[in-house]
Amino acid sequence: MTFRARHLLGIEHLAPDEIRTVLDLADTYVDLNRRTIKRTDALAGMTQINMFFEASTRTQASFELAGKRLGADVMNMAVAHSSVKKGETLIDTALTLNAMHPDLLVVRHPSSGAVNLLASKVNCAVLNAGDGKHEHPTQALLDALTIRRAKGRLQRLVVAICGDIAHSRVARSNLLLLGKMENRIRLIGPPTLMPAGVNEFGCEVYDDMRAGLEGADVVMMLRLQKERMDGGFIPSEREYYHRYGLDAEKLAFAKPDAIVMHPGPMNRGVEIDGELADDINRSVIQEQVEMGVAVRMAAMDLLARNLKAERGRMAAGVVV
């Protein structure tokens, strides 16, 4: 299996064969997670620390469950009650944790680049669970696995990513991954929610949902990132739903077998119609949650293998 990375900080530096390796291994973990006994010893004896500087339900629970099913000792660091709140810098926190000799460090942080900085200060493998508006690599990987299992392939698909593109790390990671896998990507949303330089991204840009969804295989809705907005980006939620919220009428412009995705948490009646979100014939939103555990198990397994190999070479005195 080809996977050379020491950390999983983003999609940008992953080659297509590495992406396929993660997805192939994740497929085996989907099968494991559906059994009565869901544990393996891939990370037996290893320690995983989860540091979430931003609130999270799906991602944090998913990483915790993934680590425990792999046999790791998992610690969730209560950042709200940690020395960070007393003024300790991120680097000092990293050095403190590094002295405890963890093997895997899972980090979510509101500042873009913070996880990369932390990774440069520790000896363990670091996984980016979302940093600012930068990247969310495991979300893109679980989205890719969901698409591949639903459509039977991950190439030559028309994928429409709709909504708050400007503030979304999910959109950025998916743009990178789906582009590497040779898909046709469309970005749909109001001009106020498009990032600067969007026309240089190598994808199609639409401000009309119906035109953008025409013939789409995959419709990926995004949450309005209100916590990252510092101004009036939309006139009102009601108007936003009217123009950019996904409902049956707009979805009819996509292919009849198009799947509907959303990374969560959803604002029903703002980004997506509630009945459509729950439609088992079109929506794969719950499948995304299931794939999240499997993908995070695969990513940690592969990073742990590389870490063990690196430590083995160091113990043998081999120069890396």
Key descriptive features of the protein:
320 residues; alpha/beta; five-stranded parallel beta sheet; four-stranded parallel beta sheet
Give, in order, the helices and strands.
Answer: HEHEHEHEHEHEEHEHHEHH
Please outline the major beta sheet.
5 strands, parallel
User: How many strands in all?
Assistant: 9
* Spatial strand order of the main sheet: 7-6-5-8-9
- Share of residues in strands: 5-15%
What helical percentage do the residues reach? 25-40%
Distance N terminus to C terminus?
Answer: 20 Å
Shape: globular
| Helix/strand class | alpha/beta
Count of DSSP helices?
11
Mean pLDDT: 92
> Which regions have little confidence, pLDDT < 50, spanning 5+ residues?
none
The radius of gyration computed from the alpha-carbon positions, rounded to a whole number of angstroms, is 20 Å
Question: How would you explain this protein's 3D organization?
Answer:
- The protein is α/β, with parallel strands linked by helices.
- Helix content is 39%, strand content 14%.
- The strands form 2 sheets. The chain has a 5-stranded parallel beta sheet. The protein has a 4-stranded parallel beta sheet with strand order 2-1-3-4.
- The longest helix has 31 residues, at 285-315.
- The radius of gyration is 20 Å and the shape is globular.
- The two termini are 20 Å apart.
- The mean pLDDT is 92.
